[in-house]
Amino acid sequence: MLGKLTWSAIPFDQPIPLVAAALVGLVLLGVIAWVAVAGWLPYLWREWITSVDHKRIGVMYVLLGLVMLIRGFSDAVLMRSHQALAYNAPGYLPPEHYDQIFSAHGTIMIFFGAMPFMIGLMNFVVPLQLGVRDVAFPTLNSVSFWLTASGALLVNVSLVVGEFARTGWWPSPPLSETTYSPGVGVDYYLWAIQISGVGTLMSGVNLVTTILKMRAPGMSYLRMPMFCWTALASNLLIVAAFPILTATLAMLTLDRYLGFHFFTDEAGGNSMLFMNLFWCWGHPEVYILALPAYGVFSEVISTFSGKPLFAYRSMVWATLAICLLSFTVWLHHFFTMGPGGDVNGVFGITSMVIAVPTGVKIFDWMFTMYGGRVRFTTPMLWSVAFLVTFVVGGATGVLLAIPPADFVLHNSMFLVAHFHNVIVSAVIFAAFAGYTYWFPKAFGFTLDEVWGKRAFWFSLVGYVWVFTPLYVVGLLGMTRRLQHFSVAEWYPWVVAASLGVIVMIVGVVCQVVQLVVSIRRRDQLRDVTGDPWDGRSLEWATASPPPSFNFAVMPHVEGEEAYWAIKQRAREQARLREEPDYEPVEMPLNSPTGIVCAFFATLVGFAMIWYILWLAALGLAGAFATFVVFAWRDRVEYEIPAEAVARINRLNRASRLEALQQARRKEAA
Amino acid sequence: MSDSAAIPGSLPGVVPIRRDPNHLGHHARGEGDSHATGRGIGGPSPKRIVVAYGFWIFLLSDIVMFAAFFAAYAVLRGGTADGPGPAELFDYTNVAIETVLLLLSSFACGVATLALDARRALVFQAAMAVTFLLGAGFLALELREFVDLVARDAGPTRSAFLSAFFTVVGCHGLHVTIGLLWLLTMMAQVLTKGFRPDILRRVMCFALFWHALDIVWVAVFTVVYLMGSAA
Amino acid sequence: MTGNAARPPCRWGPVFAAAPRLAAATAAGLTLSGCQMSLLNAKGPVAADEANILIVASIIMLAIIVPTMILTLVFAWWFRASNLKAVYRPDWAFSGKIELVVWSVPFLTIVFLGGIAWIGAHQLDPAVPRESDKPPLRVQVVSLDWKWLFIYPEQQVASVNELVVPVNTPVQFILTSSSVWNSFFVPRLGSMIYTMRGMTSQLNLIGDQEANLYGLSTHFSGDGFPHMLFPARIVPDGAFADWIQRAKVGPPLDTASYGELAKQSVADVPVTYGSVEPDLFRRIVDQTIPKGPGPGREGDNGAPPNVKPKGGS
């Protein structure tokens, strides 16, 4: 009846996951109870859970990303502190638990921390920057989000029901085959990633279509803001790379569930095939994360330097070059498989070539600041810190692309330091830069700068502190994923890295405090004009938060930096543009399809993990029924009358006019 | 998003509407004049274009997935583990009949699309029914081949070659199965809802899907059956 | 060799025990004599070449990135909004000359480093034999669940978790795995290489100084992975012959004892075998000997199957 699921699946003998899960469960229950008592459940259901508004979905993506970043970070804290106590000693985590933690850390950070965060930013910002009302497929967007959340849920359920993979974040066979991993850990990984992967793919299709087919009149390709370009490149990569992951994990699933022989190294199977296919997705994945991050930095640096982005067209070319080149480098993940000098040489060089467009971007960001008036707000601090620290990660990346150097550094702590150096500098810094930058657009008030800067400085110092020793200990020959070690010369560096984690914890706490403080002070921090940073692209042309239809009338774009031109004209003429003729706006109706579908997907995933076949069949039938019900709806849109549109827009125009006149008075005085 | 203006439910005078069926562009997608290219002139493309375009992108990604399976097949083709190889296993008559059935079903699907354009419900339903029968026939033959192989101790667990074979062909078969489910759903939708624009768009996507499965089948036929036994 | 000693129950003890160990280890780590593993302190020409490439490439890149980092900070600081001396050029957004420089600087760097990569990938290809007057020593390496088996086919001895090679003699490693992937690596001797079941990989190294080194696996292979650290000694010819002689007294390594060895366990104390069944390595590679059995399926109820590496840590 319940497949493999029994009471013994719950690790009663392991206090750490149980206590952690109990705490999280209590917090969740507390939040739900609080929300229920306050009577907000109907509001949440109506306005958020079933929302198909790209802004709401974007916010929920970012929220999921934030929570999962903290979850992944707590894994990192466990790993670093455990290793500091594991010199000639067993530490406090037994190997079977430690191995789950580093696997979960990587999986969560990549798939459920960084990905949702970046996709959330793209979801929120891209339609606003393009000057349109929503993404191409609003309900599909909701389905994508909830499927991602479903994957995240499964990974976290593995904490208390069963176990997570003990194979690392890429479950390389034959270790991940049933012979060597008979438990449900790898199955949790497979189903969680497959389900969220479908969501990611759909989100990629959605955003590619949005960017290519739905732009405000006059917004030609070379008038799109840089963030839209990088979002386009990133989503093209999602569309081209995620199916490879889906296929690869499907093959591993068939191996494990039905005894196929894709990667078994017996009966003709070949585990090297997995490595090739996995990294065919895996390396583009790095750029799926990094490209939108580059977009965020482009927007932030340009805005806070008070200048257009330097060499915009060059940046576009560099973005597209990275997009293409990312598919030509996967083999550098296994130079040490012994493929021979020619193959290693070619892939070494292609890997380095990616550094050229990336280097160009760095220099162009530098020259964006040149001749500017740089305002050191929190997003700008993150961006400058990115420029300074990312080049180190880039340089060590080029170093690792030299095959003989990789022969001694592969899988070492040096490698660990390298990829954290690039991913944290680019993706995490961009995530927080973008979060602080667009927060007022989403919620109508800015985040507290004092706590933001505290969070920035502690995170930066902690991050440098953690990863510098790891570079060194990698040069001392230390490899990754060691549950304990007995080499004396590694020990001080491991301890040093662990001390840095404490500083990072302070940074994370500051980040949380910033949010709380900002919410409490929201009336002082209110953004009335919708343009708190003196922005340059169209998202700042509408109110904060934008109305559900984004723009009262679709803006006409007449050049690069669409909003900057509008604003300059307003400043020169000391008045806003003529009031437009308002028309009724039709918007898509909300739909619970997303969450219902994800509910059934979770059922299918959980059932398959535990071999509860009837439940899986039920889940599939439920998902199909959901789609049929959705397809049968007769009402798909509602209309917002012209008067309502006008009323909302006039409010915003009034505060903008007020701000404009204030600025004039200040200038005159 | 504390501004109540952002909340659809709280807007006064908001009226849920039924879309005018002949209005292909629509306001949520912008003023949507139907010639808009989406390339910056004239604003967002009309919904019909957007939907078809998006579905094409999805199909491309699906083809990438098949490409990964094909790559696996190409690598593992030699991995027969002393078991039966392509030459002993493949029944080309069966494969030829399958191909004919699938191509004919694509033709029938094309007829259905034409009937849809002409708004002729009866022809549409008939053509879709023929498409279904041909597709189901294809599936039945494929299943028979699978059952036969398993009975001859050449199931997917026998060798890596057979694992890859069953997966590539089976994945296509799974797509056909989903296509058949979709087909029935569309027949029912046209029957109950008539030629509404959203339903026209769905049928168009279904047609794209069905034709794409043909393209994939041509690749399966070439890479798996022909090249498989040539090696 | 499978000690079966339970892991010490202590969980928080290490916190208090750590301080003196940290002090001792710091002292050892800071004095070069204590360095057993540093990649930059090579004991063979392969490792020396690789360390050299590391250093040269690092210097080239530092020459690019340090000025970049400094310029970034200088630009950001000089053009701060409050600095009224800085010229504000709000419309300056392109310069062909600068673009030429910013595309060519990384490009030229990559051309140069690409040359190093291409030449290095060929010269230091692990499969290329090292040149020497002496005839090479052949060592067959099998990664087991969670230990290393070294077979010396010409000497007809084998050892577990102890690698002894003569100084200045080229060593031809041929490697495979009994179960999952591992990666064989002796940091100060040079390149690492994957071991994979049903396949062999090749690695050619040479030690040019006597040394007591450590080797390890660098590809995660399961719960006992950290136990795959093993001593690797480069010794004079005489000492090598002595070691072979001493090893000869050990028990024989045949299919049965290999089967025992292939089970999941750790070997913190090296073991030697006095004779080796002919063709053992070939049969491991073509899988006519059963693969490493893994943890078994009795734990297959979804609960974390208590597959713990047996033996102390």
UniProtKB/TrEMBL annotation, chain A:
Record-annotated Cytochrome oxidase subunit I profile domain positions: 43-558
Annotated GO biological process: aerobic respiration; electron transport coupled proton transport; respiratory electron transport chain
Matching InterPro entries: Cyt_c_oxase-like_su1_dom (IPR023616), Cyt_c_oxase-like_su1_sf (IPR036927), Cyt_C_Oxase_1 (IPR000883)
Similarity remark: Belongs to the heme-copper respiratory oxidase family.
Keyword Transmembrane helix: yes
One GO cellular component, as annotated: plasma membrane
GO terms of molecular function: cytochrome bo3 ubiquinol oxidase activity; cytochrome-c oxidase activity; heme binding; metal ion binding
Segments passing through the bilayer: 20-45, 57-74, 102-125, 145-169, 189-212, 224-252, 272-297, 309-333, 345-367, 379-402, 414-435, 456-478, 490-517, 612-632
UniProt keyword terms in alphabetical order: Copper, Electron transport, Heme, Iron, Membrane, Metal-binding, Respiratory chain, Transmembrane, Transmembrane helix, Transport
A Pfam family reported for this protein in Swiss-Prot or TrEMBL: COX1
Protein name (Swiss-Prot/TrEMBL): Cytochrome o ubiquinol oxidase subunit I
UniProtKB/TrEMBL annotation, chain B:
Protein family membership: Belongs to the cytochrome c oxidase subunit 3 family.
Membrane topology: Multi-pass membrane protein
Locations listed in the record: Cell membrane
Signal peptide span: none
BP terms from Gene Ontology: aerobic electron transport chain
Domain of life per record: Bacteria
InterPro entries given in the database record: Cyt_c/ubiquinol_Oxase_su3, Cyt_c_oxidase-like_su3, Cyt_c_oxidase_su3-like_sf, Cyt_c_oxidase_su3_a-hlx, Ubiquinol_oxase_su3_dom
Region (Disordered): 22-41
Protein name: Cytochrome bo(3) ubiquinol oxidase subunit 3
Composition skew (Basic and acidic residues), residue ranges: 22-36
Annotated transmembrane regions: 49-75, 95-115, 122-141, 161-184, 205-228
PANTHER family in the cross-refs: CYTOCHROME BO(3) UBIQUINOL OXIDASE SUBUNIT 3, CYTOCHROME C OXIDASE SUBUNIT III
UniProt keywords, alphabetically: Cell membrane, Membrane, Oxidoreductase, Transmembrane, Transmembrane helix
Species the sequence originates in: Methylobacterium terricola
Gene3D superfamilies given in the database record: Cytochrome c oxidase, subunit III, four-helix bundle
Domain Heme-copper oxidase subunit III family profile span(s) in chain numbering: 51-229
Molecular-function GO term, any one: cytochrome-c oxidase activity
Subunit structure: Heterooctamer of two A chains, two B chains, two C chains and two D chains.
Main location: membrane
UniProtKB/TrEMBL annotation, chain C:
InterPro entries the UniProt entry points to: CcO_II, CcO_II-like_C, COX_ARM, Cupredoxin, CuRO_UO_II, Cyt_c_oxidase_su2_TM_dom, Cyt_c_oxidase_su2_TM_sf, Cyt_o_ubiquinol_oxidase_su2
Cytochrome oxidase subunit II transmembrane region profile domain span: 31-128
Gene of this entry: cyoA
Chief place where the protein resides: membrane
Keyword Cytoplasm attached: no
Single Gene Ontology MF annotation: oxidoreductase activity, acting on diphenols and related substances as donors, oxygen as acceptor
Record-annotated Cytochrome oxidase subunit II copper A binding domain positions: 134-246
Family membership: Belongs to the cytochrome c oxidase subunit 2 family.
GO BP term, pick one: ATP synthesis coupled electron transport
Membrane-spanning residues: 12-33, 53-79, 100-121
Highest taxon of source: Bacteria
Protein name: Ubiquinol oxidase subunit 2
